[in-house]
Amino acid sequence: FATELNAYLKSKGKYNKSEKEITFEDIKDEYLSGNITAQRAIEMYVLYGGYSQEKATETVTKWRAERETGIAYDDIEDAFMDGEISEADARNLYTTYGGYTEEEASEKVTVLAFVKKHPECDGISYAAVENYTTYCEPSGVPAGTFYDAWQYNSSTRADVDENGESISGSKKVKVLDYINGLNLTYAQKDSLYYAFGWAESRIYEAPWH
Fold it and tell me: SS3 string of 113-179?
């Protein structure tokens, strides 16, 4: 793609800034160096890169993070994990340069902070973090144990009958058996039960009851 684009630029005459040729691959570096404006970078991506105005603006806005803060947008997560920036800093970077809403940025950074504290939970979702902190953390369930159980629950499928129809309740039985096999107290197993969204009125179905 880049080769074809540069051939096109050459045929049309490459954009010239102070007698310096700029190829498509140079646009980001030229912007970061202050040789072209954000608006010109956006225009070039639209004209020569086939980007929509929205996509080009989104791309260049992310570059602004590096130009204005010294932290490349794609390095925000690593910078937070390495302790170079705070949670507030990370939220601000995501909202300012990533187009996140305040809520979206808060959720993303909440997950990052959780994984920073519990590296064994890399890949966990915000919903899982919320359920852990609401139900399981107070009872003392280890974060890694919770996440393993959460993944088991997410990946387990119900049994099917001879017609290929799911058998009602069969998945729940499997997950309850999994929970029952964990080295946890009854109270901790109860907290996993609630974290998975099952009704308190049917907790008697759990094999540890």
Answer: HHHHHCHHHCCCCHHHHHHHHHHHCCCCCCHHHHHHHHHHHHHCCCCECCCCCECCCHHHHHHHHHH
- The tokens describing 203, both together, are 């907790």
* Burial (CB count within 10 angstroms: exposed 0-12, middle 13-18, buried 19+), residue 58: middle
∠178-181-184 over CA atoms, to 5°?
Answer: 110
pLDDT for position 8: 52
For residue 9, what pLDDT is reported? Answer: 52
Q: Is residue 90 within 8 Å of residue 112, measured between CB atoms?
A: yes
* pLDDT (0 to 100) of residue 71: 96
User: Tell me: the pLDDT tens digits for 149-165?
Assistant: 999 999 999 988 888 88
Residues 6+ away with beta carbon under 8 Å from 39:
none
| 8-state DSSP, 35 | S
CA neighbours closer than 13 Å in the CB half-sphere of residue 187 = 4
d(CA 15, CA 25): 12
Residue 78, C-beta contacts closer than 8 angstroms, at least 6 positions apart: none
Tokens of 107: 């959720």
Distance of CA 8 to the CA centre of its chain: 36
Low-confidence ranges of the chain (pLDDT < 70): 1-20
